[in-house]
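If your schedule permits, I should be very grateful for your opinion on a structural question. Thank you for your consideration; the sequence and its tokens are set out here:

===
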Amino acid sequence: MKLAIPLLSLFPFISTGLGQDYCSLVVKVVDPQQRRATARVTVEERDGRTEVKETEGGDLEFCDLGISPVTITVGHPACNQAVVRNVGLEWNRTTETTITYDRAACLTDTPPVAACQILLRFRNPQQEALAKVTLELQTPHPGTLSSDKFGRELIRVVAGQRLRGQATAEGYRPATIDIDCSRDHTRFEQIVTFEKDPR
């Protein structure tokens, strides 16, 4: 009979770890106006395991997680990606989190499929914006372009073609532009730093 007492006293502790069907995490994605947003959501656990889901007008459930904090990533890294780290999880309790994701900014002025948007940013040796830069294009189409007052010029190039040209600014040495447009990298920018012309 003395042995039965400690065995019975263990039963309550054993039962608390069994039969729990709760969901670990629920993620809600909204835009800046608090409307439902469409996006890809990735949850990464501490050991590197990831689970990816697409929002379809409702909350996303990630139910088979542990109790260690996770990282939630919303959207594509090329535009406005939102990352929330160290989201806490607790045993037998659903963590609910809302993440704001501005996808609309990524849909503005989007180039056609299989084309690149290349933003050239012209700077002086002090890395300050350089205005009044003239760009003489050689390929894909010959022509002359001028930067805005903040030293920027946006150029669209069909995938598979090459952007070649020469940029000039008064008091500086000419700068060569030579950029490939790849289907794997369709939206990027390049800093072009001019050197002072000693003449």
The CA atoms of residues 93 and 113 lie 44 Å apart. The radius of gyration is 27 Å. The domain at 22-106 is CATH 2.60.40.10 (Immunoglobulin-like).
